[in-house]
Amino acid sequence: MFIQNVVSGIAIGAIYALVAIGFTLLWQASRTVNFAQGDFLTVCAVLMFVLICVGVPFPWALLITVVASALLLGFVVKRGVIQPLIDRSHTTIIVATIALSFLASNAIATFWSAQCKAFPQIFGLRPYRIGSVALSPQNIWTIAIAIVLILAINLFIQRTKPGKAMQAVAQNREAARILGINISSVTTMVFVMNAIIVAFAALLIAPVYMVRFDMGAQLGLKAFYAATIGGFNQIRGALLGGFLVGIIETFTSAYLSTEYRELIVLVVLIAVILVRKEGLLGTEER
Amino acid sequence: MIEKGGATQKSAFGRIVRWAIFVGALILIPVIFGGNPYHMYVATLTGIYIITIMGLNLTLGYTGQISLGHAAFMALGAYTVALMTKSGYSFWLALPLGTLISFVAGLLLGLPSLRVKHHYLALVTLGFGTVVYLLLSNEWEITGGFSGITRIPRPNFFGLSLSSDIAFYCLVAVFLLGLTILLLWILNSRWGRAFKAIRENDMRAEMVGVSLLSYKLLAFAIGAAYAGIAGGLLAPLMKFIDPTTFPVHESFWFLIMLIIGGSGRFEGAFVGAIVVMLLPEFLRGVQQLFFVIFSAITLVLLVFWPTGLAGLSDVFFRKVLKRNPPQLTK
């Protein structure tokens, strides 16, 4: 049981970590705290579900979702909503993302369905057995895909020119601008990246959760906790925070109480803020 | 979110007119709609929401902090009043206690999160909303869980029963009036100026000697207390509450009401709550669609018209009357 719990904790943590990485990227590039992150995920899950239901083969459904998400949740949201607000207070942008979140979930409930639907088990159901330990294919695939994605994101940021531009903007906007980096287009790129990450996270979480208009709300909150616990301005922080939240949650529900796992995570969050306000791996911001 | 007020002109006449409209409306509503219990219910409910949004306006509009826990603060007030009055305690003891609990909860939540950047407050209050919802649903020995609390009594006032719809409306109207005056007084006092200074530029405010943490904390806790009072009034109005009366997304809805009305504008809370509460009543059958429409309107307002609907009256004053709009707060 213990090993299964560790594995499912890591699997759910990997999803949190992915979504949290998207958070931290947005924060670093544009000081946007995206409260609609979870609802972005819902939009992707619903789109993928609808595509699969109308008979689009799975890989194509995934591809279309990724592209649509990049366009709508990345490009359009950045240009249409965030860009006009970028010079106003952080609070205004937060309120805007909250309105976006409300818009997305209610639009889905109104125009699609308010019921929950079971997403097809694309990873199969037959458990892998290693000795006496049975591991669900969902968990194994989730961990594998998340690791590949996280490595890819890291490679992109460390090795490519646009990735280095992102780092420059995150470290010092003014200096980056003087060096000739187009801040606005770098920010747009980060939004698009986040939208793609979220689309993949939707793929990983949809078979576990039911597809429902509010499936993302809790998830977005968890990813936010993860980013805060780990450190808002560090990808490593988001990773650590994601796995921590996933494991704490799984173990709380396994050994303490399913009802109050949210409470435990919140207590950990407040404790971390009190002891180290930048988060475990975060650095002081100017 | 920043108010684009022109030169402040203290117009005694304009102020008297506004008060006359406000008090007149409060008196006229039972005179006109008194015969219809449903209309009275909606009017009372709107009054209660105005109180909540006023509190949120103090928190968000005047000190620029986001609270996503206002539904939970309301729940604290409502459950305190419901549980105490059901066990025989007086409403007049339960309401202050419920308010105090919300106030203290505001202090306790604000203290850790205000030490750090302001989005942490949004996060922590959102988490708080989730936890309160969970507690209310799961601790059914105390809260009744999803069966809720039924037959919550309406209060008496020195032997005078306030159980009729009109009498209860009058109670809420008196509270609304009193809390409006209190908020205006707060905003026009030294505190209010400090709150505004914080919103405009918190670093500058701190440099001229405003103690940032304590003022922010105070504004946040008072905002929470307003929601607590509103909740304490809501329970006897509805006579039945359960956790789904205070879902987490209700707090999002409050925020949307405030933005539509005009965040940081005193009238904003009134305009927002009235428009958002009453429009769906007139256009039934498409209620779900309203959430979509209102959140879309909020986005458009944020981008193009940050002063909300209350800001429209400024345009009226400047363009049509050719004079500066009256300011309610200094």
Number of strands of chain B: 2
The description of the largest β-sheet of chain A is:
2 strands, antiparallel
DSSP summary: helix tally of chain B: 14
Question: Major sheet of chain A: order of its strands?
Answer: 1-2
Helix content of chain A: over 70%
- How many β-strand stretches of chain A? 2
CATH topology grouping of chain B: ABC transporter involved in vitamin B12 uptake, BtuC
The domain tally of chain B reads 1
Strand content of chain B: under 5%
* First-to-last CA distance of chain B: 17 Å
Give the helices and strands, then pairings:
The complex is a heterodimer of chains A (286) and B (330).
Chain A (H helix, E strand, L loop, with lengths): L1 H29 L6 H17 L4 H28 L4 H22 L16 E3 L2 E3 L1 H23 L1 H11 L1 H6 L4 H23 L9 H16 L4 H22 L4 H15 L11
Antiparallel strand pairs in A: 1-2
Chain B lengths: L11 H22 L3 H26 L7 H17 L4 H24 L4 H20 L1 H4 L12 E2 L2 E2 L3 H24 L1 H11 L1 H6 L4 H27 L9 H14 L6 H15 L4 H18 L3 H13 L10
Antiparallel strand pairs in B: 1-2
Helix pairs in contact in B: 2-7, 2-10, 2-11, 2-12, 3-4, 3-5, 3-10, 4-5, 4-10, 7-8, 8-10, 11-12, 11-13, 11-14
Describe this structure in words.
The complex is a heterodimer of chains A (286) and B (330). Chain A has helices at residues 2-30, 37-53, 58-85, 90-111, 137-159, 161-171, 173-178, 183-205, 215-230, 235-256, 261-275, and strands at residues 128-130, 133-135. With 286 residues, chain A is mainly alpha-helical. In chain A, strand 1 and strand 2 form a beta hairpin. The N and C termini of chain A lie far apart (46 Å). Chain B has one domain (12-320): ABC transporter involved in vitamin B12 uptake, BtuC. Chain B is built from 14 helices and two strands; from the N terminus they run H-H-H-H-H-H-E-E-H-H-H-H-H-H-H-H. In chain B, strands 1-2 form a two-stranded antiparallel sheet. In chain B, helix 3 runs parallel beside helix 5 and helix 8 packs across helix 10 (212-238). Chain B is globular and about 55 Å long. The chains are: A mainly alpha (286), B mainly alpha (330). Chains A and B meet through helix 3, helix 4, helix 9 and helix 11 of A and helix 5, helix 11 and helix 13 of B.
